[in-house]
Amino acid sequence: MKKLALMAVVALAAAPTAEAKFRMSLSVEPTPVWAKRPVRVIVRTDVVLPREHVLPLNVVGQWHPRYGNAFFEPRLRRIGPKAFAATVRFPRGGRWRLIVPNWGPNGSASPPPIDRAVNVRPSP
């Protein structure tokens, strides 16, 4: 009986940790990416997240002498139980970063944040 109780305590203690860990991926459609043209950014997870769960998306561009550092946060909307999407228009060409941050307690992150570089061609 003691072994059964001990196994139950261990299972309960480990369950929340296991559920919190999952993987994410990010894709951009279409490619190549052109400035001022809409692209679809899709973030997929390998678990079903609660309906109230929101994923942030940060878009960061290079420093520009006239405009400074480009930064904006398009809204990722749920398109399925394991997928989120946003439409992004890059204002100018160059190297941009798409970041899905994930900060956890004590500097830990699970899943790890996504940080993807995208080369954007200048508009024709």
Give an account of the 3D structure.
This protein is of the alpha+beta class and 124 residues long. It contains one helix and nine strands; from the N terminus they run αβββββββββ. The radius of gyration is 19 Å and the shape is globular.
What is the rounded Rg?
19 Å
The global form is globular
- Count up the helices: 1
Strand order, main sheet: write it out: 2-9-8-4-5
Nutshell version of this structure?
The chain is 15% helix and 44% strand. It has 124 residues and is an alpha+beta fold. It starts with a helix and ends with a strand.
Give a quick set of tags describing it.
alpha+beta, 5-stranded mixed β-sheet, 4-stranded antiparallel β-sheet, single chain, 124 residues
Secondary-structure map:
Layout: H1 2-20, E1 24-29, E2 33-34, E3 38-45, E4 58-64, E5 68-72, E6 77-80, E7 83-89, E8 94-100, E9 114-121
Parallel strand pairs: 2-9
Antiparallel strand pairs: 1-3, 3-7, 4-5, 4-8, 6-7, 8-9
